[in-house]
Amino acid sequence: MQDPQVIRDAFTERFGARPRMMVRAPGRVNLIGEHTDYNEGFVFPIAIDRETFVAARSRPDHTIRTYSAQFEQEDSFEIGAVERNPTQNWANYVRGMIKGLLARDLPIIGADLLISSDVPIGSGLSSSAALEVAVGYAVQLLNNINLLGEELALLAQGAENSFVGVQCGIMDQFIAALGRADHALLIDCRDLSYRPVPIPPDVRIIVCDSGVHHNLGNSGYNERRAACNEAVRLLKKRMPRIGALRDVSPTDLAANADLLPPEILARARHVVSENQRTLAAAAALERADLAT
After folding, report:
1. Per-residue pLDDT tens over the stretch 85-126
2. What would the pLDDT profile of 34-69 be if each residue is shown by its tens digit?
3. Domain ranges in the chain?
4. pLDDT of residue 210
5. Do residues 113 and 55 touch, judged by C-beta distance below 8 A?
6. Is residue 142 within 8 Å of 125, Cβ to Cβ?
7. What share of the chain is helix, strand, coil (3-state, %, to 5)?
8. What is the DSSP letter of 259?
9. When you count CB atoms within 10 A of the terminal residue's CB, does the N or C end of the chain come out lower?
10. Could you tell me which residues come within 8 angstroms of residue 160 by beta carbon, excluding any fewer than 6 positions away?
């Protein structure tokens, strides 16, 4: 667990004054619902106790200065000229959020930001989404902007898709913005409706490090997403009603499997069956039926 006072002191030492505010956003674990979010399906994540803090104060100019305690690096840019940082990829998540806010014609002033995170990078715990959402909360509070949690999540997803270049779904940013203690969140990634599901008080969820490094940018994630889109394109030849793999039942897929190359069929089969498993898991947890 991080000590907020240590973070405040680090900000003061770095920028010469106390921060005006400090916000945080959690990492996450997805209980079930893998590769379903970008197929307009269902996911069932929980927020975890690892989180990203952002200490912040406004500046009298149009400069955003950001310091990452994790990387021990500083990034600085002008609000009117937000471009990618070619050497510090972590900074692009910050820059992408600023650019997304500006694209909505929201007034942004300069700021000093200090980022401190204990969400492990590359562990599949959505450190990037926690960073995006925490930065978004800090900047909107500094500028008296009132975005709903859903709006902030969509803005963060857009930053990662358009600015960073990772075609992630909405799940990671959504749980970072809207997660609540002692609850999982069943999210419908088509209409963004969601339902908190209590975790029984006698249940403990243990997160273990598998030792497998995870990076959406070079993990084949974009290729998997493209394969799912191709499955929809091919299946629409016989099922023009579908808009995503969310609309395909196991029976539909079995009846039209001949349309899909083997690898694409395997990707589609996982998504179609995973949606059913996710809904069943949420219903079981609501009943406190852990055996199921």
Report:
1. 999 999 999 999 999 999 999 889 999 999 999 999 988 899
2. 999 999 999 999 999 999 999 999 999 999 999 999
3. 4-198, 216-286
4. 80
5. yes
6. no
7. 45, 20, 40
8. G
9. N
10. 93, 96, 128, 129, 132, 166, 168, 173
pLDDT for 212: 75
DSSP 202: T
Bridge partner residues of 83 (DSSP): none
Reference 89, options 175, 204, 148, 166; nearest CA is: 166
Q: How many CB atoms lie within 10 A of CB 121?
A: 15
CA dist 241 and 169 (Å) reads 22
pLDDT of residue 153: 97
Query: Checking DSSP bridges between strand 111-117 and strand 45-58, what pairing results, if any?
Result: antiparallel
CB 38 within 8 A of CB 166: no
What's the fold here for domain 4-198? Answer: Ribosomal Protein S5; domain 2 (3.30.230)
Give the CA-trace dihedral at 249, 28, 72, 168, to 10 degrees: 10
pLDDT value, residue 100: 96
Sites in the chain below the pLDDT cut of 70: 214-219
Give residues with Cβ within 8 angstroms of 35, minimum separation 6. 224, 228, 267, 270, 271, 274
Contacting residues for 29 by C-beta, under 8 A, at least 6 apart: 45, 46, 48, 125, 205, 207
pTM as predicted: 0.89
Identify the residue whose tokens are 């269902």: 42
129, 117, 137: which is closest to 172 by C-alpha?
129
Q: 258 with 234: CB under 8 angstroms? A: no
List the catalytic residues.
Answer: 172
Q: How many CA atoms lie within 13 A of 236 on its CB side?
A: 13
Calpha distance 194→70 (Å, rounded): 32
